[in-house]
Amino acid sequence: MAPTENSDARLDAIWIKRAHRGPMDAAQRVSLERGQGITGNADQGGKRQVTVIDGDLWDSLQHTLHPDVEPSMRRANLLVRGVRLADSRGRILRIGDCRIQLLGETKPCERMDAAHAGLRAALMADWGGGAFGEVLDGGEITVGDAVEWEA
After folding, report:
1. What are the extents of the domains in the chain?
2. Which of 42, 37, 36, 17 is nearest to 27 (CA)?
């Protein structure tokens, strides 16, 4: 199934991980660096510079888990709404003026169950763990920015 989008697609949340296995800090605005990722984030360079989760899918998963399960427990950097991430490998996601090439599905690890029992299993299907990618065009992104697939 091809990824879909709607005209209200937006960046709904941002988190920065200061250290590996460290806390996820919410942010309203961050800078993306081409070929590196989010300025100040522990994961820099490589293929997994930025991780993205689908906020609409998260909402549906939350109903099967518990209302207190927060998206930050997934430990992703960006939460988007209005675009479907499933089967998006190779596609380019534009957020504001920045572009991220999604390179694959982020598989949830055992840390998800440490955050909430059953979270890992709930995220396994339909790209529930989100996607990872590398920054093609850097710049600033802000919560509320428009999100779209590049043609």
Report:
1. 31-141
2. 17
Which one-letter DSSP state was computed for residue 68? T
If residue 15 lies in a helix (H) or strand (E), which one and from where to where?
strand 5-17
pLDDT tens digits for 69-79?
777 777 899 99
Residue 62 is encoded by which pair of tokens? 């939350």
Q: Is the pLDDT of residue 2 over 70?
A: no
Q: What is the maximal distance between C-alpha atoms in the chain?
A: 39
CA–CA distance, 64 with 127 (Å, rounded to integer): 16
Question: Is the Cα dihedral 46, 50, 125, 150 positive or negative?
Answer: negative
Non-local (6+) Cβ contacts of 20 within 8 A are: 42, 43
DSSP-based three-state secondary structure for 120: helix
| pLDDT tens per residue across span 41-100 | 998 898 999 999 999 988 888 777 766 777 777 789 999 999 999 999 999 999 999 999
Neighbouring residues of 114: CB distance < 8 A, sequence distance ≥ 6: none
Q: 31-141 domain in CATH 2.40.50.140?
A: no
